Amino acid sequence: MKHGNGRDWWIIYRSAPPSNNNFYVYSIDANGVQLDHVDSLGPLHSSNGGDLRFNSDGTKFAFSNLNGLLAIYSFDRCTGSITLDQTIHAEFPAGTQPYFLDCCFSPNDSLLYVSCAPYFSSLDTTQIYLYQFPLTATNVYASRTLIWQQTYPMTIGAVRLAPDNKIYVAAQKTGYPYDSTDYYPENMSLSVINQPDQRGGAAACDFQPYSFYLGGKRTYWGLPNNPNYDLGPLAGSPCDTIQTALQETAAPTPALSVYYHSAWESIVVNASKLEGKRARIFVSDISGKILVEESVILLSGYLSKNIALHNRAAGIYFVTVVTEREKLTGKVILQSY
């Protein structure tokens, strides 16, 4: 998680068994990685597997484990201190507890999405669930809503909030180690919660199973753990100590690179140092006719996109990237073979 000074970073590590309630808080700065402090608080954790997921602004995180623990904590980005907000579900005796696989906050932090099995020993014999937990309810656990369920051998894995404010869900068949030749429709697509701030069932939050095709690639249980690089300093807070120079500095110059990959029949578009947050990409021919138009979310000023251009005539094609702040144009040449 980004430090409140907008420059350094925090790493939070939940101690492994034997049973404990320790959080090790490390800082990363110009001097390297060092242990800052240990916070010991909240319910005990005795599992060898768990997930710690921050909300979008870094003020809270959820922790879930394979022994039925699900809890919400507050986090101070300036000091790295942790406090317990609420225990949604404490650990249960082995064999009777929910088996929490992953969790994720909605964009406005009002809901928590959790993938789980009813209890550990049932993982290979029964249903796997995706639940929505309303965090402001009097009894959060009892107020949960079922969004989706899968039957063995299919399981539900990682649940991740993306920069487009949608939540993506991975699913795969059980079995480890994974078969490197195992491709099937379910692991070649992600399921999507299109309106994750909306409380209710699958219809209310617009859950669409296996609706995001991975372009011939695949996933297993996991999805990338991408921190929020755009999270800035806490303005006016004691840790907002990065000084701004009085002299004006030149704004970074945006850069655009485009080339045609003949084997893929695609234009590869890369851009950097963009100041906008969203971009539209246009591909046009020499007459100005727009052939392709796509919208993308920018991550820390970077853009990388492959645009299919199948069965097009040889010639010159133009690629234009437009954001709220800039417009860049490049060209590619398709040659006949």
Question: Which secondary structure elements does this structure contain, and how are they paired or packed?
Answer:
Layout: E1 9-14, E2 20-29, E3 32-45, E4 50-54, E5 60-65, E6 70-75, E7 82-89, E8 99-105, E9 111-117, E10 127-134, E11 145-151, E12 154-161, E13 167-173, E14 189-193, E15 207-213, E16 255-261, E17 266-272, E18 278-285, E19 290-297, E20 303-308, E21 315-323, E22 327-334
Antiparallel strand pairs: 1-2, 2-3, 4-5, 5-6, 6-7, 8-9, 9-10, 10-11, 12-13, 13-14, 14-15, 16-17, 17-20, 18-19, 18-21, 21-22
What does this structure look like?
By secondary structure, the protein is an all-beta fold. The protein contains no helices and 22 strands. It folds into two domains: 9-213, Neuraminidase (6 Propeller); 255-334, Sandwich (Immunoglobulin-like), CATH 2.60.40. The protein has strands at residues 9-14, 20-29, 32-45, 50-54, 60-65, 70-75, 82-89, 99-105, 111-117, 127-134, 145-151, 154-161, 167-173, 189-193, 207-213, 255-261, 266-272, 278-285, 290-297, 303-308, 315-323, 327-334. Strands 4-5-6-7 form a four-stranded antiparallel beta sheet, with no helix packed on it. The protein has a four-stranded antiparallel beta sheet with strand order 8-9-10-11, with no helix packed on it. Strands 12-13-14-15 form a four-stranded antiparallel beta sheet, with no helix packed on it. A hairpin with a 6-residue loop joins strand 6 (70-75) and strand 7 (82-89). The termini are far apart.
